[in-house]
Amino acid sequence: MRVFGLIFCALALHARAVQASSPMVEAFKAYKAALNKGDIATAERQGDKAWQAAEKAGNDKYSAILAYNLAELRLRYLPKSDAATPAARAWALAQANPDGPLAPQSARLLAVLAAPAPQKTFTARKVLKKAVTAFEKSGLEMTYPYFRAYMQMMQYDTRLHFWRDARKDAQTAQKAYVVLGMNNKTVLAMIKINSSVALLYDSKFKKSKQAREEMSDVFKIVGPWSSNNPNPLALRAWTWLNAMSSAEMSLGMSCEQK
């Protein structure tokens, strides 16, 4: 399982462990071990335990990083859990110590993603875009929250019919997917479909050939559509391909009539 997050502050915690064991260090070790095994439930419990121990000890430096890692884990794997509380704490600590181990831009982006989004899509997009831009300008290494942010931006721009932006969002998300070494066929297929659809609408179906080629990649990712064992994403891609064919025929007839 690929390790994610803030590099786990392993060296700092190891130095602390050499001097004396502590509940924070022991919980952190258990957190790492569980995460490496793919045991998300145990990692979440131990991550929370480590963070709470850091809070109890008044160790803001470790608390910031442990809160960030816990929030990222919950955001990524446990959508119904509370990622907002540790993310907000990490953001507050990063702001208080901008030269500390947790970059404020990273903490801010995660906090925005974890917090309930504003009801108005345009407002939610504006808030997230601001956090993403600050993260990009910081020159920090690409992270899962960065990928997640562009996935969310893609959804916002699609709802707002900002098709050109939605297309760019999808392409950036796909680049992040590759850089981060992710392996989720469903997510990758969703990106391909959204990117292709955005291209269609932005070009008013004039670039249907290019969109068709990209949409066909979905079948390479999730397998062909089958009426006996239908994959929802393959079915969606198949439906869009038929829509493209109909549009091409319609545009062809319009040209002939002219």
Written description of the protein model:
By secondary structure, the protein is an all-alpha fold. Among the domains are: 1-102; 203-258. It is 76% helix and 0% strand. α6 crosses α8 (144-159), α10 packs antiparallel against α11 and α10 runs parallel beside α12 (232-257). Residues 253-258 have low confidence and may be disordered.
List keywords for this structure.
single chain; 258 residues; mainly alpha; 0% strand; disordered C terminus
Order of helices and strands: HHHHHHHHHHHH
Chain-averaged pLDDT? 89
- Form type: elongated
Low-pLDDT residue intervals, each spanning 5 or more residues: 253-258
What is the CA–CA distance across the termini? Answer: 59 Å
Backbone structural class: mainly alpha
The share of residues in helices is over 70%
- Give me the oligomer status: single chain
In a nutshell, what does this entry contain?
With 258 residues, the protein is mostly helical.
